Amino acid sequence: MQDLARIGISVPGRLMGRFDEVIAQRGYSSRSEGIRDAIRDYIQYEKWMSKVRGDRIGIISILYNQDKRKLVSSLMQVRHDNSGLILTTIHKYLDKDNCMDVIIVRGEGGSIRAFTEKLMANKCVKHVKLTTILPEAEI
């Protein structure tokens, strides 16, 4: 049997409730099983991200609370610092608090990955996802 590590985390009640719904839908025997599966998925995504190299076209989707003023200015600074990668941005107000941005980028994969990771590092960002493809000429 593998050594088990125990951890304690703080999770907002609403998020935990949604996670419990997923656990029930998927038939997990416990929260621990669901968390282990989520960690494995996260590790696989990080492995994929580490292999994003060469000229790429990508879409970065980001969900955040617009009322967090420091967050918005921080996100704008990260975008400004990476403006050479950005082809266009779509900004959508989802409700009175939440916004979604879709940022279309093109550039060296490592630079796109670093840009995405800087967006992820902001504490109040709720979700960031990067998808990339090779430019058509290279497929």
Features:
139 residues; alpha+beta; Alpha-Beta Plaits; 2 domains; 4-stranded antiparallel sheet; 4 helices; 4 strands; globular
Concise synopsis of the structure shown:
The protein is an alpha+beta fold and 139 residues long.
Question: Please, could you describe this protein's structure?
Answer:
With 139 residues, this protein is of the alpha+beta class. It has two domains: 13-49; 53-138, Alpha-Beta Plaits (2-Layer Sandwich), CATH 3.30.70. 42% of the residues lie in helices and 28% in strands. The protein is built from four helices and four strands. It has helices spanning 13-26, 31-50, 69-81, 109-120, and strands at residues 55-65, 86-93, 98-108, 125-133. A four-stranded antiparallel β-sheet has the order 2-3-1-4. The chain is globular. The relative contact order is 0.18. The model has no long low-confidence stretch (mean pLDDT 88). Residues 57-133 form the Transcription factor NikR nickel binding C-terminal domain. InterPro entries: Acetolactate_synth/TF_NikR_C (IPR027271), ACT-like_dom_sf (IPR045865), Arc_rbn_hlx_hlx (IPR013321), CopG (IPR002145), CopG/NikR_regulator (IPR050192), Ni_resp_reg_NikR (IPR022988), Ribbon_hlx_hlx (IPR010985), TF_NikR_Ni-bd_C (IPR014864). This is Putative nickel-responsive regulator.
